[in-house]
Amino acid sequence: MRIDIITVLPEMLESPLGCSILKRAQDKGLAEIHVHNLRDYTLNKHRKVDDYPFGGEAGMVMQIQPVDACISALKAQRDYDQVIFTSPDGQTLDQPMCNSLSLAENLIILCGHYKGVDYRIREHLVTMEISIGDYVLTGGELAAAVIADSVVRLIPGVLGDEQSALSDSFQDGLLAPPVYTRPAEYKGWRVPDILLSGHEANIAKWRHEQALERTRLLRPDLLD
Ligand code: ADE
């Protein structure tokens, strides 16, 4: 999979994309993530990419020309499954959406910024708008990092243990059961005996019951 991220703040994406599992996925050749500085595509001699809104509102609006130039340059090289725009008014990112995006070959993510982007970008260039939740960020970079992280980790081979993506919270519509590690007792707080029993079938049954119970308590909406 290849992800091209278009932003005015490339440095904001360096560390989330450049360490841990996302770095390993890129090192192993399972994912390519390219970050493009929108300012490299503007025709403005001061590298400006925004301007005042028509109609006299406050704030600046991202202009269509550099965005179109960058997306066109990318599309001239390969086909893209989606051109994603990060925005609080998009469809809320959830696990089924991540699963479906993880099947894509090539994705563009355009990070929203300032007061917004010229609406023609959304009408003519963007194919999908994604929000990462009902709150407003200062820009779309963190949302783009969240999308890239949640999608790339699902690519086969990215996680060491293939099972671990399948047993995630949400992957079977349930929250994950609790996990524990050594020591079996700490300050008198004990790990549930069943996990120390070595009885695989009983442990699997306990895990499922715990997943159901935690989902019923914490996220009953997932059971509807
Ligand atoms: N940009 C600002 N807030 C956002 C959000 N919640 N999701 C995606 N992009 C955003």
Fold and architecture overview:
The protein contains nine helices and ten strands. By secondary structure, the protein is an alpha/beta fold. The strands form three sheets. Strands 2-1-6-5-8 form a five-stranded parallel β-sheet, with helices on both faces. Strands 3-4-7 form a three-stranded mixed β-sheet. It has a two-stranded antiparallel ribbon with strand order 9-10. Helix 4 (95-101) links the parallel strand 5 (82-92) and strand 6 (106-111). Helix 1 packs parallel to helix 6. The radius of gyration is 22 Å and the shape is elongated.
Key structural traits:
9 helices; elongated; single chain; 10 strands; alpha/beta; three-stranded mixed sheet; binds adenine
Please give the structural blueprint:
Elements: E1 2-7, H1 11-18, H2 20-27, E2 32-37, E3 50-51, E4 61-62, H3 64-75, E5 82-92, H4 95-101, E6 106-111, E7 116-117, H5 119-124, E8 128-131, H6 141-152, H7 162-166, E9 185-186, E10 189-190, H8 193-196, H9 200-218
Parallel strand pairs: 1-2, 1-6, 4-7, 5-6, 5-8
Antiparallel strand pairs: 3-4, 9-10
Helix pairs in contact: 1-6
Adenine is lined by residues 86-88, 112, 131-133, 135-137, 140, 143.
Determine the strand fraction and express it as a percent band. 15-25%
In DSSP terms (H or I, runs of 4 or more residues), the helix count works out at: 9
- Helix fraction, binned, reads 25-40%
Mean pLDDT: 95
The assembly state of the depicted protein chains is single chain
Radius of gyration over all CA atoms, rounded: 22 Å
Termini separation comes to: 34 Å
